[in-house]
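Task: encode each sequence below as structure tokens.

Item 1
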Amino acid sequence: MTHSADSPLMTWESWMDRALELAAHPSAPRGENPRVGCVIVDERGVVVGEGWHAGAGTAHAEVVALSQAGDRSIGATAVVTLEPCNHHGRTGPCAQALIEAGIARVVFAQADPTSDAGGGARALRDAGVQVLAGIRDEEACAINREWTIAATRAWPFVTAKCAISLDGRVAGPHGQPVALTGPEASRYSHELRARVQAIVVGAQTVINDDPQLTIRNAELPVTGQPLRVVVGKRELPTNARIFDDSAPSLHIREHDPRAVLAELYERGIRHVLLEGGPTLLRAFVEAGLVDELVWLVAGVWLGGGPRALPEGERLDVHAAVVESAALGQDVLMRMIPQSRAV
């Protein structure tokens, strides 16, 4: 089916739907760069090029689609999920590539929130390219939810995950590890690991539990295992499983959550998963740096042992439940803290 290049907004939305599908392609990893899809439509309304961004250092979606379209890009429309970038990074500016290819119109969904890559729409208009913005903006932002928040404020999006008993415990009466949740919740936990770039735990958790912190019960993302990060100044056993060769590891000898996130952001990390322990979680919550709480509540009563958040002064934090579901024998609660740093 073909469409006129001057067809109404609904047509641009339908082509944007295809660009959104490309942005969410399985080989379009979450990471330092956003997930972007692009469709090139010629003057007769025929799709002549498609592309998506496959990760940092690879060609951007617009360049992939332009390469596929070749000379058919002249006078065509580029439908893109994110405003074309306007800076030189590991690759050149996409706005300039579109101009040089002879693109006559650019339709994009989400405006670029970054200071270094933004300004593509202005550059395109200055070159005489027609620009239409905001088509399917909400859907595009949802695909890059964590990246957008991280890029806007310059520190990673933080998800804190915790498996707890009915009485709020995370370990046995003497601090010994206890298998709380069942297979469905375990699978969810590994799928959550597959959506982040770094898994963060405190030094005491490594000493007490010796976790491996790898994805084992979910499909491995194209970027491979997440970075395993230990926070704290304590010396760690050299034979700890977190230092094996199954995934990259990093020991940040720091207690300040902001300093930890600043270092991870500099390393290209845009989404962090906190997995323990209680002291680390409380430090991040107190600092207002947790964006999302994922509680996996097991139907057991331990009667003693450390709690998810250790005792101390009352925290002025309230969380809105945005998702709840049964995961086999356990319950998932996903919450957004209402008091966060900005």
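Item 2
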Amino acid sequence: MDGGQNFRVDPDRLWDTLMEMAKIGPGVAGGNNRQTLTDEDAEGRALFQTWCEAAGMSMGVDTMGNMFATREGTDPDALPVYMGSHLDTQPTGGKYDGVLGVLGGLEVIRTLNDLDIKTKHPIVIANWTNEEGTRFAPAMLSSGVFSGKHTQDWAYDRVDADGKRFGDELKRIGWVGDEEVGARKMHAMFELHIEQGPILEAENKDVGVVTHGQGLRWIECTVTGKESHTGSTPMAMRKNAGRGLALVTELVHEIAMKNQPNAVGAIGHIDVYPNSRNIIPGKVVFTVDMRTHLLDKLEAMVAEFNEKAPKLCEEIGVEFECHIVGQFNPPAFDETCVAAVRDAAEELGYTHMDIVSGAGHDACWINDVAPTAMIMCPCVDGLSHNEAEDISKEWAQAGTDVLLHAVLNTAEIVE
């Protein structure tokens, strides 16, 4: 695309569209509760389809409920350029997580229509089903099926807290499509998303150019000691599993800090047994979450943990065992697509920096089957998965302007 063409999206129209979608499934504190495969999700999908059809797009839906709105290109043999993210939210979600990527894509199409711009490649907006994974675990479920990470039968059998099956609920809300999942081929895909972290705001940058996603290892650990009375057991004779947890917690922190930058580690879920005020814990089961964007670094972090954690527990007379219960390797996004994002930010004069995505996104799975990149915009205080999640209209515009130009550079304007 000629560098002199300074196309911009309509920030007011984009913002109004975001606020209109936010009316569906309102939360109790200003955000959204539009969990996947609920009636609210169905309503949001219908509104999105209405908007897409009004913009001259055709809608396709696959058997996982993934939605694909297509703007035709001039070359019938050219593979489409995709944009998109997700419309489902956390139970106490914000208005922008995922939604900005879908409705930002819609604003890109509306802007192309306004300017009467044609492209060689078709352009498609995707709404991926069940990105959040709150109601039906795991996260990124449908993009995972699309990219071959999961089978559709396995996905259909996921159940929520009430025992309802994913496949049954997808049928109930009327969004089982007829397309085979994963049959679509992509020229490239771009996902616009809020950062969900504090880095861009702290660095006063308009745009994050996402070079990598983080790899992840979830390590479930069990520390076993001996239950005994907290008042009558001498300190030197205790086998306190809770103390083992404390030592391992500090070890996880030390390993993450030693591997900066872009490495994190923490212990989230913890079960203490018997969990009584006056009984020394005899067993603690907990999960270590380690993440970084370099595979060799991630594997070294896990190896150090596996070496040191048992020794720490042995020294205090308790037993330690662990195994990996969740994992994926860090994706490195396509260099050409990443360059298209960076070039677009520079062309438009937006401040930007390279960044690693701290969360999982649909783009992380799609990256395995198509050239992919992500664009991030700041969010206030890095807050997300919270009804207080907030962004500015200016941040939304900057990210969507960059999306527009990255997509146009990839889809090729027809003069």
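Check on item 2: The chain has a mean pLDDT of 96. Residues 295-315 form the longest helix (21 residues).
End of task.
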